[in-house]
Amino acid sequence: MADIISTVEFNYSGELLATGDKGGRVVIFQREQEQSKNRPLSRGEYNVYSTFQSHEPEFDYLKSLEIEEKINKIRWLPQQNAAHFLLSTNDKTIKLWKISERDKRAEGYNLKDEDGRVRDPFRISSLRVPVLMPMDLMVEASPRRIFANAHTYHINSISVNSDYETYLSADDLRINLWHLEITDRNIVDIKPANMEELTEVITAAECHPHQCNVFVYSSSKGTIRLCDMRAAALCDRHSK
Fold first, then answer.
1. Which of 68, 146, 170, 211 is most buried, judged by most C-beta within 10 A?
2. 79/16 Cα distance (integer angstroms)
3. How many whole angstroms separate alpha carbon 204 and alpha carbon 222?
4. Could you tell me the pTM of the whole model?
């Protein structure tokens, strides 16, 4: 059952397609490139580009709850350089991943042999300049940041803001605003003082595609609220 796909997401160009499954894995597919001018590009042909384990099962000892590794959402960040970045989340933890290619390796180190063993510095009689040698293409996925311990309930959506520096994450009762480099800030909190008075939960949140201060969120009552972060620090009420 771990291979069941739980979420899919194209990157901004449509060249890459990321899928997350119930086993916490992320599989990235790349669109097949056009081979020649005589052979038109066959749309829909995607090959496996990279596979990595994004989340592992965890246990919350304070609440005696198992946190499953299933990927709830994946969001790509707009490409700024040769590497790709994406956000993936399970019920509690969001991770920022860097996907990069490596087709060259450095050879000719002074302090190490080619097999990686450290050389005796007293036996080094000359210095050499390391050179880059071609190698088989390797796609590496490395975690750049982990955003954890900010959601009491299950995360149902994440949305990258148009400033490409912040993003939203929403659970049943709260929405957090995260900065990719700094920290988080709670901007929506609909949790009542008495949980017996709970009448609605948040179902999704989404940033405006162009205005980084505007976002919307929906609730189980069938309402959608449009909020402006310039109007108040806590956006529990709709602004428009």
1. 170
2. 11
3. 11
4. 0.78
Question: Which tens digits make up the pLDDT trace of 181-237?
Answer: 876 677 888 888 888 888 999 999 999 999 999 999 999 999 999 999 888 888 877
Distances (CA, A) of 62 to 25, 59, 149, 186, 231: 26, 9, 12, 22, 36
Residue 128 belongs to some domain of the structure: no
Give me the domain span that covers residue 10. Answer: 1-34+42-100+139-148
Phi, psi of 110, deg, nearest 5: -85, -35
**Token output for 228:** 């402006």
Query: Closest Cα to residue 180, out of 161, 166, 159, 160?
Result: 166
Residues 133/175, Cβ–Cβ less than 8 Å: no
Count of the separate structural domains present in the chain: 2
Q: How many CA atoms lie within 13 A of 1 on its CB side?
A: 3
Q: Are 143 and 179 in the same domain?
A: no
* Euclidean distance between CA atoms 235 and 11, whole angstroms: 29
Regarding whether 200 and 84 lie in a shared domain, the answer is: no
Given a contact cutoff of 8 angstroms between Cβ atoms, the answer to whether 170 and 204 are in contact is yes
Name the amino acid, one letter, at 218.
S
* Residue 3, token pair as written in the block: 């291979």
Structure tokens given for 162: 């148009």
Distance CA 44, CA 62 (A): 46
| Count of helices and strands (H, E) across the chain | 0, 17
